Amino acid sequence: MTNEDQVVPAPGIDPHIVRLSSGLTMGALFANAVRSGSERIALQEGGRTVTYRDLDQRSTRLANHLAGFGVKRGDRIAIISENRCEYIETFIACAKLGVIAASQNWRLADAELRHCVELVAPKLILASRRFSERAAALADIAPTLEFGAPYEAALTAVSPAPVSDRCDGEDGLVILYTSGTTGMPKGALISQRAEIARAYIQMTDMPNTADDAFVAWAPLFHMVSTDTVFMTLIQGGKVIVTDGFDADQLARIVATETLGRLTLMPGMITAFLDAMKADGRPARGVRWVGVMADLVPREQLAEITSAVGAPYLNTFGATETGFPPASLSTIPVGVVPASLDKRQSSFCRIKLVDPDGREVPEGEPGELAIRSPALFSGYWNNEAANAEDFRGGWFHMGDVFRRNPDGTLAFVDRRKYLIKSGGENVYPAEIERVLLAQPEVADAVVVRRSDPQWGEVPIAFVVAKEKLDAQVLIERCRTEIARYKVPKEIRFVTDADLPRSTTGKIMRHELEKRLTGGTGKDG
Fold it and tell me: pTM score, two decimals?
């Protein structure tokens, strides 16, 4: 760090006092919401409702139980559970204590889950009955408190006396795990400051009110639910908690509730549209719908926005950054977009850089680097990754964009997923956009395959809506992209054959295994 990078305190002012005086915590903002509407519904799960007063009291009892167990500021607890009210109570209790909730992806294999829990060394594991056996297998790491009767007994046995607010905005609040194409998951530490900033960015860029509910169906170990749960509770709104994606249930909720953002992941939109048609009722009121427009066929963007009467969010964010850096643009209702270029989110600063960290000229591809109060605090116990990704005082996302003359950002691809063909860089997203623009194509993904002549070549896996000839698609690609980018082979598969992560993203490395193992399914 150079002298220019260091904070210079003003004469006669204690910077520590300034930091304390200017700080905000999630616990303090939640307390404001309780005071403003203690009888408003905070959580709804099936027929169960929890008011803000009840959530405040129950989370305080849990905080006191954790403190009595020896959990203190800066310690971690792990959560292995499906979405439920107690999960969110735990978030609020952690916010009050300055404790970190490490939200575990229960879809991981046993070895991966053990890695994630061991990584953060929790003092306690909170688990639902559904995952009690998996938690018991981790008893050598930490004991378990099971949601249900043991949890309720623990809450009843402790004092409801308020917890002293000794937290700092830089205290960690949650750890969410990021999965790359290889290696074990990394734990991204998100502070109270970052969660508050993420809430304010959502309020600015996709505004809604306390009367607009949020459906937390996506797993609470993922930022798309977690960040918006905190935002909703800051505003005094209602969080509708559901146990995962159920298209019929979600269609009923959309017909009866006024919603702010309706989360819909790629790969789930068709099922939801079918459920809406079967239900027969229109959406009562949705302000915004969707995430990750790049992964959705463009005709389907028009279909879903027309069905719910709300624009589609053309987002680009990450676990590490929240909705920034580029989630401000939307796709109007009923429109098949000609472009999916992004607009920069509020409250962040970005630049596009080459491998040496130099900003690239307008129109040239460069890795996006970001500074923002919404930024996470680093990967837990991973010094090498932090040194690499935070180089130069910027967080380098590993995503390549081009800046257009109008200031918008055109996504190119992941920097670390390149197809090197004959000395040329091929970005799969450039090919996928052409394929997804074809009316006969429901979904498509491009991966690399070793080639004795060119080193690597692109191969496309395509889900077709109707019978389609591979050569027709290849010829269409030749009219849209350079010849060296045209897929050398197209394999037709069903949607069920595409391996997806919990966030709906297609896992390229699993498809690569089919190519090397000869298990790809030709149509």
Answer: 0.85
